Amino acid sequence: MSFFNFDSIKNMERLLLKKQMMLKNCQETKTVIFGGSSVLHGFNTEFLTEAFRQPTYNLGVNVGLGFRYAMDYFEPHLNPGDHVILPLEFNQYTNPPYYVFGFAIDTFLRQRIWMTRKNYHQKGKLLLISLKHAKTSATAEKMKRRQAAELAESGCYLGLSGQIRNPG
Which of the four, 56, 87, 114, 147, has the lowest number of CB atoms within 10 Å? Predict the structure, then answer.
């Protein structure tokens, strides 16, 4: 296993793209729930689709992308009349609109290094945080948990049980 592992950042990018395609393919009036990982893990949109009798999508990915970064993926696929629910996490109010994982996707995965996003401030700090995350997310346990999650057609994770993080 290498010292740096960008699998979790690749997973975030895959989630963004899958969820973008879900919205793009839905021309009906829909409800979307947008936020960070608390939305991703906390809202069963399969159930809500049945309850609302309307397509409902879970657009949660990770608060560390930055609110505006994630919205750049989704906003073009929202239509007049769509309902948007925003149970935002505290860090979506306090972090910059383009934040660390958006920076990591652009820098390490897409090779748009440094100057392609004028919206990134403190690039050196974001680089160090991204590398620290890539180092600490490489554990076999974390990778196994990521692979075990089943992404439903509406964008929520199904079948998750138990505690995700070690209580220590």
Answer: 147
Q: H helices of 53-122, where? A: 67-74, 90-94, 100-104
Q: What is the token pair recorded at 153?
A: 């057609």
Is residue 4 within 8 A of residue 50, CB to CB? The reply is no
Q: Find the Cα–Cα–Cα–Cα dihedral 98, 126, 166, 157, rounded to 10°.
A: 30
Query: pTM value?
Result: 0.84
φ, ψ (nearest 5 deg) of residue 81: 95, -15
Task: Render pLDDT for 23-38 as a digit per residue (tens, 0 to 9).
Answer: 999 999 999 999 999 9
3-state helix, strand, coil in the chain (%, to 5): 50, 10, 40
Question: What contacts 54, CB < 8 A, 6 or more positions away?
Answer: 28, 29, 30, 31
